[in-house]
Design a protein that fits this description.
This protein is of the alpha+beta class. It has helices spanning about 85-90, 105-115, 150-155, 220-225, 235-245, 275-285, 285-295, 340-360, 375-385, and strands at about 30-35, 50-55, 65-75, 90, 95-100, 130-135, 175, 180, 185-190, 200-205, 265-270, 300-310, 365, 370.
């Protein structure tokens, strides 16, 4: 189930055939989902509610053929590795990984190993993978380090184009969004021939936001479905802490464990011929889509975005081979045409988060803490009361 399956829609631009980041030709997505055990948290044993997702940016050898890329930090209480080199070089040189906060290291190392295994000379090559994280410790035994290199290898090997699994899958398995169950979401937008005919796709790992701030197409849905009606997992966690004598903390705003914390990673892809500084400009625009949804990019949130563009290929030759070229030809979208790409990025980001919320199912995690799905019936009732939805 996705946002549009409910008879709802947002924005002005049409979506691609899959309404997914994979509508950008050559882009593939792979997930490994880890769900095991129930009951009280036992560090190292579970319950496990986590996983890993990968985005493969083109249909060539991603480890030796980089793409122009840019990135943006809306709020920095999080991690997206490799961004210093993206900023410095304007290039993305491999697959992108998404996982939980304490599994970034193993996913990063596994992507390095994948680059070596693909035939790069280990004495000459190097890799600075891009791996993002959001916090799933409210539902998952995050300190059990359950994501392994084998899981990353499986996600890479099984990555496909076409429809993308959403909600509580892959890196989004244990994530919470606006105090409902969250996770992975994706969407796309197509520009008309007069605007270049390009595609923009977005994939999010959504784990942020307060309930009362959630808006859908401008409608205050979060206020209409308060935590007294659909309980918040953060309130459940507070009650557990109080019973344990640890006091309340999850709503303090001082950490990533509460509704004022969270995080979101946004991956933007486009087939438009963009230069690195233009990718950076697109990478800034998810912030506006998140603002429409009710994000305030709080102190405890890691809101980190990356954009890559496939419209310029052949930027380097195969690793280990001499490249006699001193220059490489590249194209760029003219400034007057970039506004449509901005709009596409904003709309796709907004719908990607909504797809994560609609696709996600209620999940019971460690210590019985429950992240409830956004109830579709109540969403539709609320939207209808504001004149939105199917007539």
């Amino acid at each position: 189930m996705r946002f549009r399956d409910l008879g709802l829609s947002i924005g002005l631009l049409p979506a691609g055939p899959n309404n997914a980041i994979t509508d950008v030709a050559g882009v593939r997505v792979g997930h490994v989902t880890l769900i095991e055990g129930d009951g009280p948290l036992v560090a190292g044993r579970g319950p496990i509610r986590t996983g890993v997702s990968v985005v493969i940016p083109h249909d060539g050898d991603v480890w030796t053929e980089p793409l122009f890329a840019g990135c943006h930090r809306l709020n920095g209480n999080g991690e997206l590795t490799g961004l210093e080199w993206v900023r410095e070089s304007g290039l993305l040189g491999g697959a992108i990984g998404l996982t939980n906060t304490h599994s970034v290291g193993v996913v990063r190392d596994a992507l390095v190993a994948a680059a070596v295994d693909e035939g790069r000379d280990p004495e000459l090559s190097w890799s600075l993978p891009v791996v993002g994280e959001t916090y799933d410790g409210l539902l998952n035994d995050m300190n059990g380090f359950h994501v392994t290199a084998d899981h990353v290898a499986t996600a890479l090997a099984t990555a496909t184009g076409g429809p993308v699994a959403e909600g509580g899958v892959g890196g989004g398995t244990g994530m919470i969004c606006h105090e409902f169950k969250g996770g992975i979401g994706t969407a796309s937008r197509l520009l008309g021939p007069e605007a270049g005919g390009w595609t923009v796709g977005v994939l999010v790992q959504a784990n942020y936001g307060r309930r009362d701030l959630l808006r859908v197409d401008g409608v205050p849905v979060g206020q209409a479905i308060p935590t007294g009606e659909v309980p918040s997992p953060y309130d459940e966690a507070d009650r557990l802490r109080e019973r344990a004598g640890a006091g309340r903390s999850s709503r303090s705003g001082a950490s990533r464990t509460g509704a004022d914390g969270g995080s979101i990673i946004v991956v933007v892809a486009t087939d438009a011929p963009l230069l690195p500084h233009q990718c950076t400009r697109l990478a800034q625009r998810p912030a506006l889509g998140l603002g429409r949804l009710g994000s305030i990019a709080s102190h405890g949130s890691g809101d980190l975005f990356i954009c890559f563009a496939t419209g310029n290929r052949g930027l380097s030759r195969t690793a280990g081979e001499a490249d006699p070229r001193l220059t490489v030809d590249a194209r760029m979208v003219v400034d007057r045409a970039i506004d449509d790409l901005f709009l596409a990025t904003i709309e796709a980001t907004e719908e990607a988060v909504l797809n994560a919320l609609i696709a996600a199912e209620t999940m019971v995690g460690r210590d019985g803490i429950t992240a409830h799905a956004l109830p579709h019936d109540r969403l539709l009732e609320t939207m209808a009361s504001y004149g939105r939805g199917v007539a």
